[in-house]
What we know:
Elements: H1 2-33, H2 39-67, E1 71-77, E2 82-83, E3 87-88, E4 95-105, E5 109-112, E6 124-129, E7 135-145, E8 152-156, E9 165-166, E10 177-184, E11 188-204, E12 207-208, E13 213-214, E14 217-223, E15 235-237, E16 242-250, E17 257-261, H3 262-274, E18 282-283, E19 286-291, H4 293-299, E20 304-310, H5 315-319, E21 326-330, E22 333-334, H6 341-346, E23 353-360, E24 363-370, E25 372-373
Parallel strand pairs: 9-16
Antiparallel strand pairs: 1-4, 1-6, 2-3, 4-5, 5-8, 6-7, 7-8, 10-11, 10-15, 11-14, 12-13, 14-17, 15-16, 16-17, 18-25, 19-20, 20-21, 21-22, 21-23, 23-24
Amino acid sequence: MYSVIGNLKIKKISAVAIVAALWILSIFVVLRIFDKIPAQILENNKILQTQKVINEESVVIDVVKKVSPSVVSIAVENKQLLNPFFGLTEPGEKQSGIGTGFVISKDGLILTNKHVVSNENASYVAIIRADNGSERKLPIAKINRDPFNDLALVRIDANDLKPVEMGDSDNLQVGQSVIAIGNALGRFDNTVTTGVVSALGRAVSPIDPSTGVAERLDDMIQTDAAVNPGNSGGPLLNSAGQVIGVNTAVASAQNIAFAIKINVAKQLIADFQSSGGKISRPFLGVRYTHISRDVALLNEVPEGELVREVVLRSAADKAGVKVGDIITNFDGQKLTDENTLTSLIRNKKAGDGVKIRLFRDGQTLDLSATLGEAPNE
């Protein structure tokens, strides 16, 4: 009898508690609708949100202030040029802005993309803007182009420049924040955009309009930060203001851009400085287009590199490589989407002997070559 009464009391108390909770909740909802919630209840959340916005803005502002004096606009003496990575430049005044670079040493060494300064007959100018808005236009005296990567080291006559701080692109994480600074459209210098690292390890193949040959670039950073014509060669930065990439190309879709990892550039700079101011690279002497496995099957040819051009008197020319050949193996390694000819040559040195297997007119041929040294332009 007592246990039954006790159970009834417990059930009654529980029902009252549930009703009270629902009543309190309904009052809170009504007050929320009519914006009558006590200020203290919402104030903490509002403060946290405000702090987050301020902190994010402060990071970008601090990075821009730190790095902008090191960002350089690169212009060419007025002529209309076709940029293989972004499109047609517009004719301007005395100089037409075509790209961006950034200072890597106080004494006038600047890093940019090779395609920004690809015209051997053109005269280029570096435009440096000071914090007070004044600018200096200094002719680029020497250009050193990397045959393996879309990178170039250019020098101007200056000894008071502010170099950037370079980060470590091997530690990048997908989703981390990035900041891009560049000469957008060749007219709006030091334009700032933000985004994230969208992906890592991408491969892209922009086409060189002068030859019609695609230049394959591997292990690229993909970002959704807005990158426009003129941003080529500009820095991609982390939240600490360190350069983690060199903005290089965009896809036809929106919010897809690619940057070369800064560790690739750091190795180039180290080699350049240790070799006395030149870029020393092994050189086979072919331009090619990769034939993927699927394309090879459809055309009943082997997978490999279709030779589009052979440089006169190069290692490939001396070995007997011809336009139209398909190089299938290089020094005993099969060429695939992942195992590219460029990556294999990069691991060699000038003077190394290599074996080349190729497909020509239905036959397999084995050739020997001695790698030369890439022209130091």
